[in-house]
Amino acid sequence: xxxxxxxxxxxxxxxxxxxxxxxxxxxxxxxxxxxxxxxxxxxxxxxxxxxxxxxxxxxxxxxxxxxxxxxxxxxxxxxxxxxxxxxxxxxxxxxxxxxxxxxxxxxxxxxxxxxxxxxxxxxxxxxxxxxxxxxxxxxxxxxxxxxxxxxxxxxxxxxxxxxxxxxxxxxxxxxxxxxxxxxxxxxxxxxxxxxxxxxxxxxxxxxxxxxxxxxxxxxxxxxxxxxxxxxxxxxxxxxxxxxxxxxxxxxxxxxxxxxxxxxxxxxxxxxxxxxxxxxxxxxxxxxxxxxxxxxxxxxxxxxxxxxxxxxxxxxxxxxxxxxxxxxxxxxxxxxxxxxxxxxxxxxxxxxxxxxxxxxxxxxxxxxxxxxxxxxxxxxxxxxxxxxxxxxxxxxxxxxxxxxxxxxxxxxxxxxxxxxxxxxxxxxxxxxxxxxxxxxxxxxxxxxxxxxxxxxxxxxxxxxxxxxxxxxxxxxxxxxxxxxxxxxxxxxxxxxxxxxxxxxxxxxxxxxx
Length: 512
Description:
With 512 residues, the chain is of the alpha/beta class. The protein has three domains: 4-83, no CATH class; 158-256, Beta-Lactamase; 261-507, Rossmann fold (3-Layer(aba) Sandwich), CATH 3.40.50. Helix content is 39%, strand content 18%. The protein contains 16 helices and 15 strands. The chain has helices at residues 4-21, 39-44, 50-53, 63-107, 118-134, 142-157, 163-167, 200-212, 261-267, 272-283, 298-306, 349-356, 373-382, 397-409, 417-427, 492-497; strands at 171-177, 182-186, 189-192, 224-228, 234-238, 248-252, 288-292, 315-319, 331-335, 363-366, 389-393, 430-436, 442-454, 457-467, 481-484. A nine-stranded mixed β-sheet has the order 9-8-10-11-7-12-13-14-15, with helices on both faces. It has a six-stranded antiparallel β-sheet with strand order 3-2-1-6-5-4. A hairpin with a 5-residue loop joins β12 and β13 (442-454). α1 crosses α4 and α5 packs antiparallel against α6 (142-157).
């Protein structure tokens, strides 16, 4: 009779043969499919033999017991592979951290040299990165080397793990809700991204890199900041202690090739007839307010309306973070500035609006009116600067006027409501309101004329209204469109004085 040790050895050999029959690699072979060798890991791997010890010593394994042994072995090997994969991931992260530190030590201040060309910096970083990786004593497969190179390049030259999404034209917004939680907006819908930052410090370094390039700062004394990327994309960051679960970063991307009126027609945001009408209103020097909620596409519409301004006029743009992309030749761009670390030196939108009146503007375009600058904007519209355009947050045309009144009162002037409303009715000619629908589409829903005062109320007249009677299709997409109300606006005569004609057929009810 054989000894117990001999029987156990025979059972283990039988189990290993059975395990290889179902496609498991030979455990004695240290060569992995990815070409990496980890002898020390294999030596430390748990022996699968204990899975058989519990079986009766004298029993001959039948088909059922063989399948049970094979399943147990498969589960054990899967656990080993998961552990090795986790170990490999940790190893890559450690390697990235060490290579990143070496790279910073090699390049030093060159990374933040404003005089160095971006392409030259990119080439130098990649050269030093290749040298540092080559000097590592830990071997890397080609795929891992490419991954480490790309991720470190994104971190140093770009914006870390979110850099690929900023390059992706299908992504319109990137939202970071803490270092381990990244969301994207694609086609108007939110999706969770696979990327994450290494830790809170990694995320803060990325935020600091963005804001420092335009002279802004973010820290505990100034925990909120509005900034922009070099391509004009809008950035907002808020850090602890205001952000409880870690720093939050929101980037609203702007396409390198801005949307045109033809794009808006293709997307269904407006119709060809309404596009012609809006072009006539801009060329006829009407004062226009573009209103809507957050993310409704106000700035995009403002860009399109500004493109209708004749090229022989002087345009002054005023914004919190410069994001308008005008193609006219004569454009002066102004940007507000927050207070410095001592709480001094702030330059507000209101200050810039006042200053712009001394710059001989033909048009004043304000990115967003959100405070007492509304009073100065109304003054500009009422003092010979016709054709001004601005955006404003509101729920509808009537709410737009109410918000304008409220913001005028924020200026601290003790003006009666009737006087404010008379100023608004005299200054504003047209309200273009738009909304973002549940399917993610952005549509202009109202093109409304501001008529005159009747008693203490400003009268409004809808010229075009979004008709949603068609409902939605099977995919939840909006089927409605912008239709004429059949009413002709009173400012047609004002357009005629500016030698701008509007085809009366645009206002027919059966056309839109």
